[in-house]
């Protein structure tokens, strides 16, 4: 039985998935305020607000499921969102859901910000509501954007992977730096002054000093913390337990050894790991 939709009755769907989104322009309070203003402009009466704190790459979200249940059983006629990315991040899944909303449930969707789609289709920038023609164009555009993004990330990953195989660490950590050769390629070298600090930290730790004690010693000696800005127990822990200083580097599923970049011998690193496990009672090191 088809429900007789009341298009003045609306629900709002809000979603965040990261701390940054919670604090900035995608915060739930900002989304809701914007959606309510949009609803008021279009003379919609908000019946319920659904909120998820989940990734947009999955449709297995508690509030999203409740939303689907409500609009399928009640005569809600309109759905208000901040933008399409709040419903989903997967272009194909998103368009499939939207088409079911329009064609099967006959529900209108109002969007505060037509992000991405608006930029490519200026003629739609003043619209609050989508129609089925918008969806077809959005599907094509969304698939293009998704494919381009995946190809970019793949090229970047393969490029960095190959760089490591060629002796250049992607985003080198404390103790290393990259420099450019005359042929235009890059190589990673050891920063001797920072390597001495790493060796010193490991020696202190093996002599039973705590990470906090080591950080205080470094501060008192006025040793520069480099990219860390300030010494702390957490920073020292990262240095002492970092397997990369044995010359073994990880990138995705790749483990690659560069002996020329060894700062801490493997046997000494094994001592560090065993001592840490004995002290902390942890069987696994989590960086």
Give your account of this protein's structure.
The protein is an alpha/beta fold. The chain has 2 domains: 6-148, Resolvase, N-terminal catalytic domain (Rossmann fold); 176-280, Hect, E3 ligase catalytic domain fold, CATH 3.90.1750. Helices cover 47% and strands 16% of the residues. The protein contains 11 helices and 8 strands. The protein has a 4-stranded parallel sheet with strand order 2-1-3-4. Strands 5-6 form a two-stranded antiparallel ribbon. It has a two-stranded antiparallel sheet with strand order 7-8. Strand 7 and strand 8 (254-257) form a beta hairpin. Helix 5 (91-104) runs antiparallel to helix 7 and helix 9 packs across helix 10. The longest helix has 34 residues, at 132-165. The protein is elongated and about 75 Å long.
Provide a brief overview of the structure.
The protein is an alpha/beta fold. The protein contains eleven helices and eight strands. The N and C termini lie far apart (56 Å).
Name of the CATH architecture of the largest domain: 3-Layer(aba) Sandwich
Question: Terminal Cα separation, in Å?
Answer: 56 Å
Low-confidence stretches: 115-127
How would the global form be characterised?
Answer: elongated
Helical content, roughly?
40-55%
């Amino acid at each position: 039985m088809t429900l007789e939709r009341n298009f003045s009755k609306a629900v709002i769907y809000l979603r965040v998935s990261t701390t940054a989104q919670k604090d900035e322009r995608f915060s739930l309070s900002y989304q809701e305020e914007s959606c309510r203003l949009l609803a008021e402009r279009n003379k919609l009466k908000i019946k319920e607000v659904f909120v998820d704190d989940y990734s947009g790459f999955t449709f297995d979200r508690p509030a999203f499921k409740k939303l689907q249940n409500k609009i399928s059983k009640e005569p809600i006629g309109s759905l208000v969102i901040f933008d399409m990315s709040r419903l989903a991040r997967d272009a194909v899944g998103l368009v499939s859901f939207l088409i079911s909303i329009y064609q099967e449930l006959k529900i209108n969707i109002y969007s505060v910000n037509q992000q991405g789609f608006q930029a490519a289709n200026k003629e739609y920038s003043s619209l609050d509501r989508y129609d089925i023609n918008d969806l077809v164009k959005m599907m094509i555009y969304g698939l293009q954007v998704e494919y381009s993004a995946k190809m970019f990330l793949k090229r970047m990953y393969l490029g960095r992977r190959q760089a490591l195989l060629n002796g250049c660490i992607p985003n080198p950590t404390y103790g290393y730096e990259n420099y450019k050769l005359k042929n235009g390629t890059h190589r990673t070298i050891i920063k001797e002054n920072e390597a001495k600090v790493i060796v010193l930290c490991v020696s202190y730790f093996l002599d039973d000093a705590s990470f906090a004690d080591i950080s205080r010693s470094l501060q008192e000696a006025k040793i520069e913390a480099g990219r860390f800005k300030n010494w702390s127990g957490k920073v020292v822990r990262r240095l002492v337990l970092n397997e990369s200083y044995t010359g073994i580097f990880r990138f995705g599923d790749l483990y690659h050894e560069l002996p020329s970049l060894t700062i801490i011998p493997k046997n000494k690193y094994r001592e560090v790991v065993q001592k840490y496990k004995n002290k902390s009672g942890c069987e696994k090191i989590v960086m």
